[in-house]
Amino acid sequence: MEHLVTFSIHGDIGVIAINNPPVNALSSGVPEGIKAAVHALEARPDVRVIVVIGGGRTFVAGADINEFVEVIAGRGTMPALHPALFAIEDCAKPVVMAIHGTALGGGLELAMAGHYRVATADAQVGQPEVKIGLIPGAGGTQRLPRLAGVAKAAEMCAFGEPISAREALDAGIIDKIVDGDLLEGAIAFARSVPGTRRTRDLPVTPADTSEIRRKLRPNLMAPLAALDAVEAAATMPFEEGLRREREIFERCLHSDQCKALIHAFFAERAVAKIPDIPKDTPVYPIRQAAVVGAGTMGGGIAMALANAGIPVRLKDTDQAALDRGLATIRKNYERSVKSGRLTASAAEERIARIAPQIGWEGFEQADIIIEAVFESLALKKEVFAAIEKLAKAECVLASNTSTLDMDAIAAATSRPQMVIGTHFFSPANVMRLVEIVRGKVTEKPVIATAMALAKSLKKVGVVVRNGFGFVGNRMMFPYMEQAQLLVEEGATPEQVDRALTDFGMAMGPFGVADLSGIDVFWRIMQEFPQEFPAAAGSMRASGIEKLYAAGRYGQKTGAGWYRYDQNRKSIPDPDVLALVQKGNRAISDQEIVERCIYALVNEGAKVLEEGIALRPVDIDVIYLTGYGFPAYRGGPMFYADMVGLQGIYDRVLQFGWKPAALLERVAREGKTFAANERP
Ligand code: 3H9
Question: Whole-prediction pTM value?
């Protein structure tokens, strides 16, 4: 335990260092070590002031989330943070916290137990617990309002977004920003402090938090709970407030939402680990990129590259298309400047990294070429044949196809081992998901390069195998099909969409279809007749065909499953019902959710069975980051495990679908998808 927390003496300053890589989480042993070190230094007559600092790349990123998993499972005990924090706060000598990297969750709570805080200019502090379904549980909801006021504390605890050192200074959370060496600066600051100053003794003035409350989603438990706990700080003495915080924390900890959100947290990190692609797989450095096709996808991909500092050539075949693409890019950046997310000069710098062109000049220098032309196999093969003539031997050749056969595209070149799918989601400059499609012969360094690139673009790359629609879109079709059948049987598009947004989906299926374009769905159905009738149902929905025949392509034509006004606001349209409805059965929201979500689950099980997705967790991350599945339900496969696979299997049979063999087997064995994964 000793090595987790060490201390040393610098003149009359005692320095406590926390060394629990990679992020100095407060794992068992760390709080105990801090407490022991504080007591040891407090007892030394030669020490006047104590400085606490994080070793390595950061201060403290919070409690150890793995330990919460154990507590939830009934196997572990809660970390003993309060005793360490009280040892600091009650220390007779001033304690100065020296923050670099991030002080998050329990990390900020630890810092606030100190008497003073200094930070590097690039440090960040925050209470992000709500993102894993929790509230601050080590006094954060009680000490933060005393330092920053109730309104600021409420905002930080309820939304969970970290703030910069500058903002923390202005809010009174830290006392000084240190330029240069942090430890030296902290020691100099420590020499100047007048004496101890307990955060818990500071007064709290109540503030109106109704505006924040209004912004919170009613179906998310933790943010509202965090707000309750912060408000308690204004009405209760400190000790009582702490007890209240603990009660609320415990309630959150044992909620399904917390389990799901913790799953989502680790899932995002788990997908980066591919068993046959070890961490030390060599990667091709990506210094220059080129994108073919300046449409919506190509433009968005070029922006994502430019945002990450990678110069990119953006090619289209005619000037008009190129101009349109560039105008859209400009408009997007202008919007970011207007909203204050980007400075005007940063936007200009990024635009300058995108070189628009009609020809192929410079492609021979590109480290990666990403094809983003119209979704047609013939066209993509042509583009790859052309690219291959120009690209250097070590250039990664990527396609942004969302449905086509990656191996067929790769076969258009003489170096299929260099070819990979990088399926970005629209808008590509915003959406975090990239499905990385490894072909039959894609070499491992190319896969590792695509994963590293996704990471450097601040996206989440999920490696999948080649197959119709890969993982995300493949599962989307049976889901969409159920949504359509429900309308044919008597539901309305708005009822289906509302039932699914109430479930937590960011958008309902019909809203999505109208946004993506009915013509896009229709064209895919024509190109892959063998994939429809859909995998889940025995019936075939005909809504898409009827809407397509009626010229209702969605938002772009002003009508699809809804009508749209000038502001693209959707309006229910009885004409759609006249066009597609065959029955008028009253359908419950529960049936809507079960049919649509279980269609996803059943297809997800097939995707696993076929090895298109490696693990259930990969499917979950794809749906969480690319399809608006609610994080507080953990993704479709985690959700299925929570509901119970036997129940889902029974419903699948009742619906008259063919169950996936994997679903049938795992349900019969009484297991979960997750447990089935573990060796
Ligand atoms: C809390 O504090 C509750 C309190 O109120 C007290 C209640 C009593 N625990 O993200 P990265 C792992 S709740 C365990 O890839 P980055 C992570 O899994 C906590 N493990 O790096 C990964 O492992 P691996 C509140 C953690 O540089 C490795 O560290 N705090 C934790 O992109 C590297 O992480 C939070 O919610 C943890 N707390 O980002 C902060 N944190 O290499 C959560 C990280 O095996 N953490 N790991 O895959 C983060 O937001 C980011 O990790 C951070 C670094 C920004 C710190």
Answer: 0.94
